[in-house]
Design brief:
single chain; mainly alpha
Length: 351
């Protein structure tokens, strides 16, 4: 590989990592928007003209009048003042504006790199796939919001889960491509990779279950840990019919499932971290495993404290952002253990 090719691939990787950073901020801000009840404050989808906020008192009054026609205002926030409305509107506006910024940060450099012939053939379809998912995500955000503007004063938990899951899929795809550009994998994978593949699947299931917790406001029931109302298995888990709805719509079952998926994931990740000590790894590979082990402890702590403190905004948003960081750490470890240890680094690590 020539020095020019290496420089180009590093530029592409830095661009994708910058997009990952913006998307991480977007996920965290989305958590703030959800917890503060701001997501339904903007009742129209205007991809272009919506860039500008209301610029006059008349414009603000028109936005408030639109909000007053929604179920959330009529059933939850009736009598809300203009200042209170501006507060929740600000979070949703910032969330949508940051989403538009992410689109620009991805599309503009993509076009520039493409026109200059700097995108390798092997990356063209993956990058176009990420672009397609990004466009779908823009629509998915409005599709989610629209579900809360009809009868029930909250968005559909299914649509919220789809919205968050797609955001994490986009993040994972960009991050994985960037890793491949920065650190090409050579040689056979280590023995530590296989358990990480299983754990990635379990982590995805856990995060998706957390999205259903958010969508059903299940974090506001049974704010104790590890017991729920003094029981390991609370009463009334299978309350809905058909039974499958309990795992997606019944707050008690949704929280029960997420908390024990989280505990199981954390314990298995720590087990994989301990197992990695018995496997020949170089310094970077071992560092990757340390990052996964440390981050799973941080995320578990954030989840428990968020529950015990009745979902404060800061902790709730940090827990949502922590899921992104944990996914990134696990992808990094999975990528690093997917190649043979570098012998010079392995010798230094075991010296």
């Amino acid at each position: 590989m020539t020095s020019e090719t290496q420089r180009t691939e590093r530029q592409l990787a830095m661009w994708l990592l910058a997009c990952c950073l913006v998307l991480f901020c977007l996920v965290v801000l989305g958590g703030v928007t959800r917890i503060t009840g701001s997501g339904l404050s903007i009742t129209e989808w205007k991809p272009v003209t919506g860039v500008l906020p209301p610029l006059s008192e008349a414009a603000w009054q028109a936005e408030l009048d639109l909000y007053r026609a929604t179920p959330e205002y009529q059933k939850v926030n009736r009598g809300m003042s203009m200042d209170e409305f501006k507060f929740i509107y600000g979070f949703e506006y910032a969330h949508r504006l940051l989403a538009r910024l992410l689109g620009l940060v991805f599309i503009v450099p993509l076009v520039v790199f493409w026109v200059r012939g700097k995108i390798p053939a092997r990356l063209r379809w993956p990058l176009l796939g990420i672009l397609a998912m990004g466009c779908l995500q823009g629509y998915m955000g409005w599709f989610m919001v629209k579900s809360g503007l009809v009868d029930i004063p909250r968005v559909s938990p299914y649509r919220l889960t789809a919205h968050l899951s797609l955001a994490l899929l986009i993040f994972g795809a960009m991050f994985w491509v960037a890793l491949g550009l920065l650190r090409p994998r050579l040689g056979a994978p280590t023995a530590a990779q296989r358990p990480l593949q299983v754990l990635l699947g379990l982590l995805v299931v856990t995060v998706v279950s957390g999205a259903f917790v958010a969508g059903n406001k299940a974090g506001y029931v049974y704010n104790t840990f590890p017991l729920m109302a003094g029981q390991w298995i609370p009463d009334g888990l299978l309350h809905l019919d058909p039974a499958w709805r309990n795992w997606t719509e019944h707050p008690v079952m949704v929280q029960f499932t997420h908390r024990w998926l989280g505990v199981t994931t954390a314990l298995l990740v720590l087990g994989a971290w301990l197992y990695a000590w018995r496997v020949p790894l170089d310094r970077t590979q071992r560092l990757a495993m340390h990052l996964v082990g440390g981050m799973v402890l941080v995320q578990a702590t954030l989840g428990i404290k968020t529950l015990l403190l009745y979902v404060p905004v800061g902790l709730g948003a940090a827990h949502q952002g922590g899921a992104v960081v944990l996914i990134a750490a696990l992808l990094f470890a999975l990528h690093e253990t997917g190649r043979a240890p570098r012998q010079s680094a392995l010798a230094a690590a075991t010296a």
